[in-house]
TrEMBL record:
Belongs to the methyltransferase superfamily. RsmH family. It comes from Dillenia turbinata. This is Ribosomal RNA small subunit methyltransferase H. Pfam families: Methyltransf_5. InterPro entries: RsmH, SAM-dep_MeTrfase_MraW_recog, SAM-dependent_MTases_sf.
Length: 450
């Protein structure tokens, strides 16, 4: 009873000291729930009352503020307008997605040619006597283009992947000797195990005369084929267990494993930041370097496990770490194959080898590639004086409106050396995106030599 009396007296003192606090101890209820094991010291009461006096945490404040902002009609309207603006900037393809054509030229299991109808439209108005597919893959685009252009006399297909190269050879040969092939001219066909960075030297090797008039059409499909992603031994998949390889060319010496285990920590961080655009790059860099002390990283599962443990818990669980892992794998693949530098130099050499009126079409799959394609195309076409630009813009607007090529030509950017036929990139139709989720980030840009 003495203990209870002391508690009551101390509670009264506390209420007098904190008169502004709208909280009163219910002594009767407290007395009933009292147990001898509870240490009822003055410090206990100070802690309880100070806890009640604390202001809401910054996290709860932030959540409350965000909720209020989201309910604000002005903010809702602003977000809606921003989303509409983003969709307007995107030129979604109006081409009807023909599943029968995809079945004819694609492989439901390993390969589906992305934006096939749009690519055929790009070259439909060109007298395509010579054509180069810089990334032949499983030859889905190539076979469709060869069939659509019986006037073609020279075809060159390039790929650094020996499996893709072999598959393309078999498929193109099978088509050329099949019943469905009706050709006006004999076709000289070359499929070479080469990187498109060797574009000019390849043309000199197969037919030096083709460089004089130039090539009529060139296609670059920068995406990875499903047969590469689905092969765990290549190390490209986030969801499969395999070695940390990531080489497009198996003969190349550098692997992702080498970068992770031996490159300076600052270089590892730069790759994650610049090539993966990963915000958590510094934390990942430190974890990767720390893993070297226990033997390093040697498989995709080990790397994914490290990423999963490093991902903040606030990023949406499995989807959060998978997105991070996808960016990390992209960064390592770009570094291993030097993809961005190769792309930039190759765009210039490809354009130089085009004939007047010839077209170069590029399908990119992430913002880094698309940015390079966009900026390089603008640099290639050259600048004009203001008078020339205004005259050409008017002419090009009329051209695009009256074009017999189809609805894909929306706005043209004119230049001294060429014209960009896609001011905004063409993206897959909604129907194609539903049937092939891997194409959703694809962007098609086209440039024409004058």
């Amino acid at each position: 009873m003495a203990a209870a009396t002391a508690i009551a007296k101390y509670g009264i003192c506390c209420r007098r000291s904190f008169s502004s606090l709208k909280f009163h101890l219910n002594f009767n209820q407290f007395h009933k729930s009292f147990t001898p094991s509870l240490s009822l010291t003055p410090q206990f009461f100070h802690h309880s009352i100070s806890t009640l006096q604390q202001k809401p945490s910054s996290h709860s404040k932030k959540k409350k503020r965000n909720k209020t902002e989201n309910q604000n009609p002005k903010n809702v309207i602003a977000k809606t307008l921003a989303e509409e603006s983003r969709l307007k900037r995107r030129t979604r393809s109006e081409k009807k997605f023909d599943q029968d054509v995809i079945r004819q030229y694609g492989d439901d299991v390993n390969h589906v040619p992305v934006m096939l109808g749009e690519v055929l439209d790009v070259f439909s108005a060109v007298n395509l006597r010579s054509f180069v597919d810089c990334t032949v893959g499983a030859a889905g685009h190539s076979v469709a283009i060869i069939q659509a252009h019986p006037e073609m006399q020279l075809y060159v297909g390039l790929d650094v992947d020996p499996i893709a190269h072999e598959k393309a050879q078999v498929r193109i040969n099978s088509f050329l000797h099949g019943e469905s092939c009706h050709r006006t001219y004999d076709l000289k066909m070359y499929t070479l195990l080469k990187n498109f960075k060797d574009f000019r030297s390849v043309l000199e090797e197969v037919d030096e005369r083709s460089l004089t008039p130039g090539v009529n059409g060139i296609l670059m499909d920068l995406g990875m084929s499903s047969m590469q992603v689905n092969n765990a031994e290549r190390g490209f998949s986030v969801l499969a267990d395999g070695p940390l390889d990531m080489r497009m060319d198996p003969k190349a010496s550098l692997k992702a494993e080498d970068i992770l285990n031996f490159w300076p920590d600052t270089e590892v961080g730069r790759i994650l930041r610049d090539y993966g655009e990963e915000s958590n790059w510094y934390n990942l860099q430190n974890k990767i370097v720390k893993a070297r002390a226990s033997g390093g990283l040697h498989s995709t599962v080990e790397l994914v496990d490290l990423i999963r443990k490093s991902a903040p818990s606030t990023r949406g669980g499995r989807h959060g770490w998978i997105k991070t892992a996808t960016r990390v794998f992209q960064a390592l693949r770009i570094a291993v194959n030097d993809e961005l530098n190769t792309l930039k130099t190759s765009l210039y050499s490809c354009f130089d080898c085009l004939s007047p009126g010839g077209r170069l079409a590029v399908i990119s799959f992430h913002s880094l590639e698309d940015r390079i394609v966009k900026q390089t195309f603008l640099d290639i076409i050259g600048e004009k004086s203001e008078d020339e630009v205004s005259t050409d813009k008017m002419q090009c607007r009329l051209e695009s409106l009256n074009s017999s090529e189809g609805a894909w030509v929306k706005q043209i950017i004119p230049g001294q050396n060429g014209k960009i036929l896609t001011k905004r990139p063409i993206t897959p139709s909604q129907e194609e995106e539903k049937l092939n989720r891997r194409c959703r980030s694809a962007k098609l840009r086209v440039i024409q030599k004058v």
